[in-house]
Amino acid sequence: MRNVRGRVWAFGDHVDTDQIIPAERLTSDNNDRLGTFAFEKVRPGMAARVSKGDIIVAGRNFGCGSSREHAPRALLQMGISCVVAQSYARIFYRNCINTGLLPVECQIEAEDGDVLAVDFGTGTIINETKGREWSFAPFPAFVQELIDKGGLMAKIREDKRCTR
Q1: What CATH number has the domain bearing residue 54?
Q2: Which of 7, 49, 82, 83 has CA 20 to 30 A from 106's CA?
């Protein structure tokens, strides 16, 4: 299981998938550049300022709304490595695992620009900026395997190559 370290982008409660990626951007012409549109209505310009490995920290019910897998794909494309939220909409959480985005369920305190280190082996999050630490339940082995492979679809593609 990989560990991540990145700069925080902080959000509140009930961030829905339409805020993450607006519905009008969900055309087949945009599939390879969904990340450029992420949060464009609620945080204009954010996508251009995200660095590879950055982390979203949010409150309750992150990813609520429609159950489109485009939302976690957009976050991955923009460079987000991990989302740490107090809780998730269940379908969004599963879509994160399916696409390879790391969803951590843990209530922490962080602000825009703080630097977090997330250790998936030990289940710890350290806010390096503020010197605080939290624990979370590590993923079960089968979920770790899916995430390590890049998500469910990547795992299926790999399994198909092995059987031919």
Answers
A1: 3.20.19.10
A2: 49
- Residue 9: CB atoms within 10 Å: 24
**Cβ neighbours for 130, distance < 8 A, ≥ 6 positions apart:** 109, 110, 114
Instruction: Give the model's pLDDT for residue 127.
Output: 98
Sign of CA dihedral 106, 112, 116, 120: positive
Domain that holds residue 63: 4-163
Query: What pLDDT score does 114 carry?
Result: 98
What does the DSSP assignment read for 34-92?
GGGGTTTTTSTTHHHHPPTT-EEEE-SSBTBSS--THHHHHHHHHT--EEEES-B-HHH
Number of structural domains (the chain) is: 1
R_g over Cα of the chain: 15
